[in-house]
Amino acid sequence: MPRNLVVLGSTGSIGRQTLEVVRDLGDRVRVVGLAAATSVELLQRQAENFEVSHVALSDAATARKWSGAGRQMLAGPEALVHLAQLPEADVIVIGTVGAAGLLPALAALRAGKLVALANKETLVMAGPLIRRELESSRGALVPIDSEHSAIWQCLQGESERSIERLVLTASGGALRSLSAEELSSVTPQQALQHPTWSMGRKITIDSATLMNKGLEVLEAQWLFDGPLDRIDLLLHQQSIVHSMVMFDDSSTKAQLGLPDMRLPIQYALSHPDRWPNSLSRLDLASIGTLTFGTVDLDRYPCVSLALEAGKAGGTYPAVLCAADELAVEAFLQGQIRFTDIADVIAGTIDAHNHCSDPSLDDILESDGWARRVAAGLVAKASPS
Which residues of the chain have pLDDT under 70? Predict the structure, then answer.
């Protein structure tokens, strides 16, 4: 029987690549639901190509442009929650950007679905809530991020007691060759030119600030029940070693592959099996050299901000995510400089009145508060 799939964020980078994987796998996977934010025309083509009956647009105003006959169109943020609980769905891929993935993830877990998570913010914002939901429901959670998928694969068949450290690799992003002085004059176009990965705009900027690595450390904490002080970052420009696990007998296991998100996406769908595909194979002889180095926290202040928020816990990680999301969009719109991103995030965190054991409502309230505060800080900043 095929695995029935819902893709939230189907018109974004992860969503489009998920549908490429589905097309390559033939009848192993069947798409039963698709959701996007505002990309009506692409969503309509996807629904027609995959003969999907359940579609949703989280932006209600945009949904009025829908003209796909014979398909149930749901509109508004709650529409994603509805699709995440479709009775016929087996797997829910969450490829949405930012906080939009949290409520659908919780709903899918409560409905007993397998959640394939590409959205970092869901676990960063609400790791304890997600863990409690996993313990009390029939749902399951698997990672799509290449780094977390690599760790997940390295841990197959291993005892948790033998794990010594988790090591996440980082390419360094589009600006890794620039000096610290040059970063203040970086344009959005420069920051979006990632040297090894093809990703969405927000995560590409997060890669340039290395905020994505800070978020990945916090995410790994909840995915693998690993203390923050046992999770390391390692610069690796070639993006071939996707992450590693060090064990207490001094062994280290690594997962290698070409920088192609379709491989971790497929593994999330096929686990515990591995299915053959038409993706390019890794040829280490042609690559020749793999290099590694330490992360300079002075150059990448967003990493420190993320780690500090993770250690503080409570509502700080939600504030971190919201401020980052707003600051990145402001940079992309030319409202602030690249180096202002970290300043906006830091200022928002400094102003926060912390809640140590937040409920879902507390987290959502902190998210909204942080966006308002960050918007005020953006308004005071100048790109000149």
Answer: 68-70, 382-384
